[in-house]
Amino acid sequence: MEIRFEENSVWITGLAEFGAAHIFENGQTFRFADVGGGVYEGVAFGRFLRVRKQKDEIVLGPATKVEFEEIWRDYFDLSRDYATLFSNCGDEALARSRAYAQGLRVLRQQPFEVLICFILSANNNIGRIRKTVQSICELCGKPFVCEGRAFYTFPTPKALAAVSEEQLRACGCGYRAPYLLRTAKKVAEGFDMQALFAMPYEQAKGALLAFPGVGPKVADCVLL
Known about the structure:
Elements: E1 2-6, E2 9-13, H1 20-24, E3 32-36, E4 39-44, E5 47-54, E6 57-61, H2 65-75, H3 82-87, H4 92-100, H5 111-120, H6 126-140, E7 143-146, E8 149-152, H7 157-161, H8 165-170, H9 177-188, H10 201-209, H11 216-223
Antiparallel strand pairs: 1-2, 2-6, 3-4, 4-5, 5-6, 7-8
Helix pairs in contact: 5-9, 5-11, 10-11
């Protein structure tokens, strides 16, 4: 893999294991959308990003070298050699999955955002979750402008905990609204999401299962 920086963008060559459709359309994130021609736009870590393919290169932008190294390299898990991982794995089910979703990468997202989004995922579908998450961001996220367009960050635990159940229901949260409020309050009051990743798996999963609306599947999605 080779990386170069030009015109406020990042150009990546030699990265076979990167398929934007499989990365953004598989239900692991709900803040990126296909805007046409296989170009994806979205918000993560309080930044707007456009992802496109030009010939054999992946282009990320707008992004400086500093932003790439501080945010996007880790977000797309680019320091991990997926091709080698797959070649060293003899699991037939994984091989079939790779063939079906060539280029899928596991995004390294903000844990609180993942927790909230996957509480919303219960008895839901991707399209509806996307709309609900966008409404929540517009309700209590922080607005910012990029390329002359308005966007919203994912809300902080404190900001989400400050809204009402009725407001969240109006966003489409339904019966999950009180779960989100209690979860946001617990994190805002000091629960350390990052500490989960220093714990043994079973301990971290148990800590997540104590949150309202979190079952084994949601807990595993957060820990992934």
